[in-house]
Amino acid sequence: MGENNVDLPKAFAERMQRLLGGEYEAFEASYGQARQYGLRRNLLKGTEEEFIGAMPFPLEKISWAREGFYYDAAVQPGRHVLHEAGAYYIQEPSAMAAVEALAPKPGERILDLCAAPGGKSTQIAGRMQGQGLLVSNEIIGERARILSQNVERMGVSNCVVCSEKPERIASLFPAFFDRVLVDAPCSGEGMFRKDEAARQEWSQKAVQMCAERQALILDEAARTVRPGGVLVYSTCTFSPEENEGTVSAFLRAHEEYNIEETALENSLSKGRGDWISQPAEGLEHTLRLWPHLIRGEGHYIARLRKAGPQADNLPEAVMGKSPRKSDARMAVEKMAGKGTWQITGDKKLCKLIEDFLREEMGIGETWMARHPGRLVRFGEQIYLVPEEMISLTGIKVLRPGLQLATEKKNRFEPAHALAFSLLPEDGGRVYGLSEREAAAYLRGESIACGEERGWTALSYAGYALGFGKASGGQIKNHYPKGLRKSL
Fold it and tell me: I need a surface site. Which of 152, 192, 226, 269 has the fewest CB within 10 A?
């Protein structure tokens, strides 16, 4: 037990003593030390220099995640306007390492199978830079809704959020994805320092139940990886049954997969404590993040490569579109106007939306070039769906892509999500807010303005917060009522 009186479960402590030997004392002492707090800047919005310049409190770089920073808990970044604008995502520092191991790239097809609340999905999206397809899945409906909200707040346009069982995802997307992340539900031992509930709910029986569930999830995930693709398995626990045991059993059942070294080993390797005593043969390159060796909580990561040609060497036929044809509602014709925006869908709808964005919103070709896709209408809602997404028919989808607009009485209103996708260079009518005005806007108040008229994006420090409609020296507030808050 450490200075902060973190009472470790007895059976857990005894097991860790056996595993760590002489390092156990340092491991136990780490529970008496203050936990580390981290946030991750949004790579979809501006440069690091702009981000640092806008931040009202000091930050310190995290060595293993280029977009990650430590912050002092006293600053409460979750209660700041920039958080609501999607400038950053609050995330435990060690949790950022799994996406580093995944190494996503723009233009790829990527699956985050157990994605809620969205930290790793939005980190993946930042690396993808709006290019390619990200499918973020969460089986539990309420958690999937939180995931969808975070994807929206971070301004991600190429992500489809769904809520399906792993076996259903595997049947829908056979050998489809370039990279798959399984951040598996686990016993949470790595979170004991920060999460009292995890300590109280822990039991050896729960560990075994988690290991059995992880094996099933990993088997289904394997079916979705294309030949030559990457599968990353991660947990936030120390249990050998859930970590090396799960990976070893998986490798025995799937001879087409092999453990692959990650670049993380250079930034995280701290000596023998990185491994449990003598690592099992073939698992030398799986990683353990220990709270007594790094400034973060406990984590485990294994990167696996499926046999076959790697992405850079794949023929176009393999890297091309989905093997399933799009639904008729998803449209079949390519609309390529004089501008750079290309969307697939009903020609009339495409023209109407394009005119709305250009003429009523003032959004130019810079934004359109960054956001290819196909238009889909769900009742009154108009979405831009990533080009490589399969048919949405039969899939429980919470967010089919980026919501662009709502059709009301033969006119369009911009969707709140559209604002988060905007950058300063995208054009359009933008009204910059002071911090006081931004806080008032988030509370739902109208904003005094000059001669502006029509739909206007309101921003703070270059980060868009939402829309309002300007007229008569006032911008009427259109921030969603369900999101309004006092900071």
Answer: 269
- pLDDT tens, residue by residue, 329-385: 233 223 223 333 455 567 888 889 999 999 999 998 889 888 888 998 888 999 999
Return the structure tokens found at 424: 């300063």
Q: For residue 253, what are the β-bridge partners?
A: none
Q: Name residue 257's beta-bridge partners.
A: 306
Whether pLDDT at 323 is above 80: no
The CA dihedral of 289, 294, 297, 303, to the nearest 10 degrees, is -30
Catalytic-labelled residue, pool 159, 236, 350, 449: 236
**Cα–Cα distance, 380 to 382 (Å, whole number):** 7
Mean pLDDT, the chain, rounded, equals 88
Count the neighbouring beta carbons within 10 Å of the beta carbon of residue 476. 13
Contact (CB, 8 A) for 160 and 133: yes
**Contact yes or no for 275/288 (Cβ under 8 A):** yes
Judge contact between 463 and 469, C-beta under 8 A: no
For residue 236, indicate whether it is catalytic: yes
Q: Integer distance in angstroms from the first to the last C-alpha of the chain?
A: 37
Predicted TM-score (pTM) of this structure? 0.92
Pairing of strands 257-259, 159-162: unpaired
SS (H, E, C) the chain: CCCCCCCCCHHHHHHHHHHHHHHHHHHHHHHHCCCCEEEEECCCCCCHHHHHHHCCCCCEECCCCCCEEEECHHHCHHHCHHHHCCCEEECCHHHHHHHHHHCCCCCCEEEECCCCCCHHHHHHHHHHCCCCEEEEECCCHHHHHHHHHHHHHCCCCCEEEECCCHHHHHHHCCCCEEEEEEECCCCCHHHCCCCHHHHHHCCHHHHHHHHHHHHHHHHHHHHCEEEEEEEEEEECCCCCCCCHHHHHHHHHHCCCEEECCCCHHHHHCCCHHHCCCCCCCCCCCCEEECCCCCCCCCEEEEEEEECCCCHHHCCHHHHCCCCCCCCHHHCCCEEECCCCCEEECCHHHHHHHHHHHHHHCCECHHHHHHCCEEEEEECCEEEEECCCCCCCCCCCEEECCEEEEEEECCEEEECHHHHHCCCHHHECCEEECCHHHHHHHHHCCCEECCCCCEEEEEEECCEEEEEEEEECCEEEECCCHHHCCCC
Asked, as a colleague might, if the bond just before 117 is cis with ω within 30 of 0, I would say yes
Q: How many CB atoms lie within 10 A of CB 240?
A: 17
Task: Please state whether beta strands 381-385 and 411-414 pair in parallel, antiparallel, or not at all (unpaired).
Answer: unpaired
Copy the structure tokens of residue 409.
Answer: 């009485």
Core vs surface per residue 178-211: b (16+ CB within 10 A) or e: bbbbbbbbbbbbbbbbeeeebbeebeeeebeebb
